[in-house]
Amino acid sequence: MLFTELRFWAFFAIVSWLYVVLPHRWQNRMLLVASYVFYGAWDWRFLGLIVFSTVVDYLIGIRLGAEDDTRRRKILVSTSLAVNLGLLGVFKYFGFFADSFQALLAMAGLEAGPITLSIVLPVGISFYTFQTLSYTIDIYRRDLKPTRDFLDFALFVAFFPQLVAGPIERARNLLPNIALPRTLSWDAVGRGAVLCLLGLIKKVVIADAIAPSVNAVYANPSPSGLDIAFATWLFAIQIYCDFSGYTDIARGVAKMLGFRLMRNFAQPYFAADPQEFWRRWHISLSTWLRDYLYISLGGNRGGRWFTYRNLMATMVLGGLWHGAAWNFVLWGLYQGGLLSAHRAFAGRHDRVGEGQRRSLGSWLWRLLAVGAFFQVVCYGWLLFRAQSFAQIVEFTSRLLGGGDRAYLSMSMPSVPFAALLGLVFLTMWDLLVEMTGDVQFYRNCYLPLRAALYAGMIYLLAFGSTSASSAFIYFQF
Hints:
By secondary structure, the protein is an all-alpha fold. The chain folds into 2 domains: 6-182, no CATH class; 187-272 and 352-476, no CATH class. It is 69% helix and 0% strand. The chain contains 17 helices and no strands. The chain is globular, with a radius of gyration of 23 Å. The relative contact order is 0.11.
C-alpha cells in the first residue's frame, strides 16, 4: 500500500474518521490494528515477525527496568541485540554473506556447493529493528524507563506512517505522544496537508519522472561520460526527492493525527562539507549511528587515529545497513573517508545552515563550496546506484575521459518538462527554508498569496504527476 495510491488515501480517510469519534485509549488500539492492516497489505506473513520483535523487546525492557545486577543487564541487552540483529542477518544478509564466502573460497582454489535459501526481505525491517533496539539500549543506559502498556509499545513499533521507511523514531519522543491524549486542530490538519502535498510533488512529479532517464544510463553497457555525469546528478535529485518525499508524507499524515515525527532532511544539498551533510541527510539514521554505534565504539575519545577508525567503522556499517551488496560497503568506506579527511584537515565545527545571516561575500563563497561539495556527494551516489563493482570502475573511467565513445555525446532520454518545473519549485522552496530558517515560512504570507501557493501545488501535482509511479527507493532497505 503506497502513499501514492488512492487506496492508501481511502484507508487513511477511514482511519481518520474512526480516530475522530474514538476516545484516546481506543484511538491507540484502532491505530495499532490499522498499522497491522497497513503492514499486512505488503505481505501478511511478516506480521508474525514484527509481533515477535515487539514482544521480545517489550519483555526485555520490563526486565531491564527492574534489574540492578550489571551482569544480568548485559545479558538482557545482548539478547535484544542478538534477536534484532539476528533477524536482520537472516532475512537481509544471509544470501550476501553466503555468496561472498563462496567467492572467497573460489579465489583460494577451493570449490564449495552453492548455499541457497529462498528468503524474501520483509519491507521496513531495517527501520523497525533499529527503532526497537534504541528502546532497549536507552533503558540499559538508564536514559529511559520502560513502558508497561504493551499495546502502546506495539503501536510505537508499528505506527503505520513511518513504519516502512522511517524516520527512525526514539521511544523518548514518540511513546509520550502515544501515551498522552493528543489535541486535534484544523491548523495541524492544514500543516500536515501541506507536507503531504510537498512530499507527493517530490515523489510523483520529480523522482518518478526522472527515474527512467537514470535507469536508461545505468542499464547502458557503454554510456558516454556526459551521460554518466547527468544521470548521476539526476540520481542525486531522484533519491533525495524519493526519500524526503516519503518522510514529508509520513510526517504530514502523523501531524493530522496529532503526532510529531522528527524531521529527517534539512536541505542536504546545501551542505558545504561531509560533517554538515550528515547533519542534514537522513537525520534519524545518522543520529542513531552516532548515539548507538560511534559513541559506543569510543567516539572521539582515545586520540585522532581511534576517531578515524570509529568514523570508518560507523559509516561502513551504515553503508551495509542500506543493502546487502559490496557497492553499499564501498559507499560507506567513501563516506567514512570523507568524514575522516574533513576531521583531519578542518576539525569539528558548530552547526551551520538554516537562517544564518551572512554577508554577500560569505554567500558567494558558500555557494562555491556547496557546488563543489555537491560533486563529491554525487560521486558517492554513483557508488550507491551502481549495479556492480565492474560498473563502478567502468563509469569512473568514462567520467575521467576514458573509453572509446565521444565524451560529450548524449543518449540519455530527456526529462519531462513537468519534472523540471517541479525541480524549480522545490529549489525555491528549499532556498526559502534555508534563508528564513523556518520550515513553515509560507504561513507568514498574506492569505491570497498562500492560497495561490496551495493552488499551484495542487495544479503541479495533478498535471505533472507521472503514470509510472513506483515504490519508494528506501523500501528495499
